[in-house]
Amino acid sequence: xxxxxxxxxxxxxxxxGKGGSGTVYLARHERSGRLWAVxxxxxxxxxxxxxxxxxxxxxxxxxxxxxxxxxxxGMFYLVMDYIEGKSxxxxxxxxxxFGQEQVVKWGLELCxxxxxxxxxxxxxxxxxxxxxxxxxxxxxxxxxxxxxxARERKEEAEGDTVWLGTRGYAAPExxxxxxxxxxxxxxxxxxxxxxxxxxxxxxxxxxxxxxxxRTLRPELSGGLEKILACCTRDNPEERYHSCGELAWALKHYxxxxxxxxxxxxxxxxxxxxxxxxTAVSFAGSGIMISLERRAIAGTYQAQIAEAEGAVxxxxxxxxxxxxxxxxxxxxxxxxxxxxxxxxxxxxxxxxELVLREVLNERSDGGGRILDRLQRNETEYQRAAYEIGxxxxxxxxxxxxxxxxxxxxxxxxxxxxxxxxxxxxxFRAGILNRIAGYYDKLDIQKRxxxxxxxxxxxxxxxxxxxxVEIEEGDNRIxxxxxxxxxTAGLSLRMEQFKAAGVDVNSxxxxxxxxxxxxxxxxxxxxxxxxxxxxxQEVKEGIMTAKQALDAAFSDS
Length: 555
Fold this sequence. Notes:
By secondary structure, this protein is of the alpha+beta class. The chain is built from 21 helices and 11 strands. The longest helix has 26 residues, at 422-447. The chain starts with a strand and ends with a helix.
């Protein structure tokens, strides 16, 4: 009670709250003056003692730290961080609803906390996500409190839960003891919380359940509507399988909007046009496409659509692979595959292994899939352009530029009227030559030979940055080129100076990049990756300018 002193250390000041898991007091440390939250636990409440033991093992800025576990007068007292701020429940009572950007930000923050819990050994399942259990500190950061229903997951257990959690926010598997709770359980709870924050409608109140969020707030994103619908499905297998997956979806929610998807489909029309032309050529002059070919073509496009619309990354990748197996000679499936790989802005070594597996897989028609693709020259050049750019710009290993060269060379040899535009062919040629410079630079490092013409290198870099965007391109293409140009200037400025490259041509190139970036910074990003590239180009301009000023300070 207020006024009591625990262990002659903690003076009870006030009651912070009472609930099914015990009374929580505000206490002050008598010597340091620091404020703590003290949770009173009866000895018979064994599961709450387990909460204390569980929290002692955890260290995360989004979780309260445990200071002490005390026993006095037949009771246990759990001494924890006192979180100054308001709960999301209190904020909802004040604000009623929140904007989608704020809700996405909070969702990503809570995904981090839950993912930390889920990746412990053994994993910890929180099981009581609700607005009253999330505190917002005065600095704006969130803290997940009240671990009364959390548990460590036991892989050998068949079931674990009977009537634990809060109705409305708790997943269906938390009632009746049917199966074990897992990360998908917390995904459901977090989805319910985000739903409440966006709509102002509590799933605890009648008429219960979840209606599509845009029926309540039409201005909200269709992408967020899809994400929350996935989070709150009754069957755990149909939800996101981890908070990492959910976080990825939240970061890319704009890309799930129907408007964005329509724009994406317009960008894909060139691939569809090429695919149709190829299918007709397969059928032979003057002969209609057979029913079998029609069926394959329909299934192929259905798999491409599945790859674009599926929720889980693994399902999207598998749909791409199925499309490629059906039509190894069409480039659209490879384009789809590379888009999935590059969603996070990186072409990883693991993703490269998947690509190699796909290309080396034996096709139904005999031979490797790569062999089937190479038989159709124009489609092969289209796919080579996509793969070559991924290696050149985004491969995480040291040999990306070198690996890109063979693919870009194929694309650079494309003839007019094929599936590549003249500018794409031109760009492929430049990238191929720049990749060759990198290869020679590596040789120079090893044996001291000077085989690189830095004047030629600069001409190609400048030409790459000068290629204007055309219809069918997107800003990502130009941002990648600008990033390459600014990086080249930053790293090789002394060599460019020694080779006699005109300082004004380098300044002009940076001005051109900066002016284009300034225009695009006033326009919305279509993805997190685009936003990231803009920032990298912005930083690259600053670094390149510093290198240029340092190199030519005496000029």
